[in-house]
Amino acid sequence: MSIPTVMGFHYTLKDAQGTEIDSSAGGHPLYVMLGKGHIVKGLDDVLPDMGVGDKKTIVVSPENGYGPVNDELRLRVPRGQFPPDADLQVGMQFQTEPKPGAPVFTIMKIEAEDVFIDGNHQLAGVELHFDIEVMEKRPANQEELAHGHAHGPGAHDH
Ligand SMILES: [Zn+2]
After folding, report:
1. What was the pLDDT predicted at 158?
2. Which domains does the chain have, with CATH numbers?
3. How far is it, in rounded angstroms, from Cα 39 to Cα 60?
4. Residues 94/75, Cβ–Cβ less than 8 Å
5. What is the pLDDT of residues 62-81, one digit of tens each?
6. Which tens digit of pLDDT belongs to each residue from 127-146?
7. Choosing a second label site near 133 at 20 to 30 A (CA), which of 29, 56, 92, 121?
């Protein structure tokens, strides 16, 4: 059994129009155990070929990112199906089932008797442009292997 690789890297994520979505700049690099599906497939496929100091822009299609938009997850729900005392607001998020991994729905629009919700990931259908700079690359240590995920530098409390 081979020991998984842990990589620490800085990233800036933009969409196809160049609008920044997220970035590690100014903070700690992101530490990831590669090949475990902890990051989108499009990154997990390419990062193992990069080394410390390498910089690269990786373009990830929705299929290898957060998936295509699924219209079946865009629903119109009667207001009456929500608890009467719920203070519904656009942008509010909730799960329909109380189990891990259940889709998270976001309220997109509220009309008189209808609430429009969307269970797609916010980045579904988005082509992801990652500017990557690799800071560290090493085999996973014993503690990381035991936990099944990477640990960055600094305190660790789980
Ligand atoms: Zn841990």
Report:
1. 74
2. 5-66+124-147 (3.10.50.40), 71-118 (2.40.10.330)
3. 12
4. no
5. 999 999 999 999 999 999 99
6. 999 999 999 999 999 999 99
7. 121
Cα(137) to centroid of ligand 1, in Å? Answer: 18
Calculate how far, in angstroms, residue 84's C-alpha sits from the geometric centre of ligand 1: 41
pLDDT, the chain, mean: 93
Total-model pTM: 0.81
Distance from the alpha carbon of residue 151 to the mean position of ligand 1, in angstroms = 6
Q: What SS3 class is residue 34?
A: coil
Question: What pLDDT shows up at residue 101?
Answer: 75
**pLDDT at residue 47 greater than cutoff 90:** yes
Buried b (16+ CB within 10 A) or exposed e, 39-68: bbebbbebbeebeeeeeeebebebebbbee
CA quadruple 30, 34, 40, 46: dihedral sign: positive
Residue with tokens 């997990």: 44
CA of 68 to the centre of ligand 1 (A): 31
Q: From the CA of 152, how far away is ligand 1's center (Å)?
A: 9
Distance from the CA of 4 to the center of ligand 1, in angstroms? 15
Distance 148 CA to ligand 1 centre (A): 7
